[in-house]
Amino acid sequence: MTFSVHGLAVSRGIAIGRAVLVASSRIDVVHYFIDASKVREEITRVRVSRDAVMEEITRLQHDLPKDAPHEIAALLDVQLMLLQDEQLISGVKHWIAGRHYNAEWALTTQYDTIARQFDEMEDEYLRERKADLAQVVERILRHMKGVASPVQAAVRAGSSRKQSQDLLLDDTMDVPLVLVAHDISPADMLQFKRSLFAGFATDVGGKTSHTAIVARSMDIPAVVGARSASQLIKQDDWVIIDGDAGVLIVDPSPIILAEYGFKQRQGELERERLNRLKHTLAVTLDGQPIELLANIEMPDDTLGAVKVGAVGVGLFRSEFLFMGRSGKLPDENEQYLAYRKAVEGMQGLPVTIRTVDIGSDKPLDKLAGKAQDRHLNPALGLRAIRWCLADPPMFLTQLRAILRAAAHGHVNLLVPMLAHGSEIRQTLALIGQARAQLDKKGLAYGPVRLGAMIEIPAAALSVNLFLRYFDFLSIGTNDLIQYTLAIDRADELVAHLYDPCHPAVLRLIADTIAECQRQGKAVSVCGEMAGDVSMTRLLLGLGLRSFSMHPSQILAVKQQVLRSDTGKLALWAAEVLASEDPAALLQA
């Protein structure tokens, strides 16, 4: 009987095939107490396995094929960083030496401790890094037990099946497969292209999980967060993965199969058409040039941005250089080299570097430390520029690194979460101080355009104040929506109220764009709304001419731009703004 399972759409396209089922890959852990004489031996067991996993990942990096998506190399870097995290290592030693837990129990206990910190994070991308930590811990546990990953076994089976087919050993084996798993690690994904798998679905994961990021980069139809998929779907069931709608259709009827087969062919043709737009200028029907920029997290992400024709980086989230370091933050030279690599990777195109957006809800926050429990509402606490201004030496280190990187290309410096004039003046004073420090040291640096994020309603309502001090503004729609509507996006009980089309949200965005236009200042949108093709026409109608998004979304947005007439859209956008139900007009 046909039924459907709903998840999150993270990578476009349709995949149809027989299910290869991999249930939860979590390895069973036995809990027992050890004698004091065994403490050193248990600590050594964890260390040896941890070192072996690090060696495996390093080897994977070294052996990466040339056509492997650059995202996989970056994600393997993150896993190496987590393996070296002092909080993980010292915590495991504590549970073994202090509580006399066996090695496996100590490792899983420390994972649970750190995982709770990830759950409290406001930033969706950082929250998703919990899955990377889980994969790292699982790899260590599997090495300790000598057990292979069930996902890798399934992927290898698919590869073997493909090789057998290639050798014409069995003509009946030409059946597409789809993988249904609890989760898939970047290491598992490395083998995906060499197997018969046409797509995959996972029980866990979000739109910014590494699984989703790699799926988009490899152009594999995928649905994540389909919580009960691996329990409801049986081995060898026919499954349709609708990566556009975020739905799995199990045991489809012949009519549904035919319908999705047609959609699949249409999708392939559409992707081919989009790929032909890579080198087409983004200009509307009425001749308005539109700037399509990329959001990146790591310096290597510039490769993907250039590949799809981004005309610059509109948001380099620098906080990912600070992840998993337990308070040992990157020094000036490390940051300078990373920013320089991104600048050079964009080959002369502009790079907008956002200063660190970290807060009291993050495990890397050295300010939280022992006072972690004091932060009852981290989203409203000491995060982003508030954290930076509370730690001037740390902030000055980052500012000097960004200024030095500006000597190698066109750099914009973007400051998040500003709301007060006093914060603006303190920030500008510290930027001036950073320049003076570089002058004193005789280090070269370049000019930067200064920008501010508009992501707090107070900032949107004070846009004139911001335009007195900044060269450009960037609207962070994710946080702006959250703060305007008092919605915690991570709270499933209220997440359905998170509404980009709420009249108040649209008014704040429209007014910010209009005032920037009136004063001749640049403005962009860098939140999820920028890459949502259903919002492209509305943003164009509101006067937006600069969009920054994940590189995978650029070509689809460009297609919308090429089909739009901003003059006609301006009239329609005014109607949407005046409506009590803007979403209904958008759908119409």
Describe the structure.
The structure is a single chain. The protein is of the alpha/beta class and 588 residues long. The protein has 23 helices and 16 strands. Helices cover 48% and strands 13% of the residues. α11 links the parallel β9 and β10. The longest helix is centred in the first third of the chain and has 24 residues. About 4% of the residues have low confidence.
Short description:
The chain has 588 residues and is an alpha/beta fold. Helices cover 48% and strands 13% of the residues.
Q: What structural class do the secondary elements suggest?
A: alpha/beta
Q: What profile does the largest beta sheet have?
A: 8 strands, mixed
In CATH, the topology of the largest domain is named TIM Barrel
Uncertain regions spanning at least 5 consecutive residues: 162-173, 365-374
Helix content: 40-55%
Biggest sheet, strands in spatial order? Answer: 1-8-7-3-4-5-6-2
User: Which CATH class of the largest domain applies here?
Assistant: Alpha Beta
Whole-number count of domains:
3
Q: What is the CA–CA distance across the termini?
A: 34 Å
The portion of residues forming beta strands comes to 5-15%
Number of strands: 16
Number of helices: 23
**Radius of gyration over all CA atoms, rounded:** 25 Å
Q: Can you name the CATH architecture of the largest domain?
A: Alpha-Beta Barrel
Gross geometry: globular
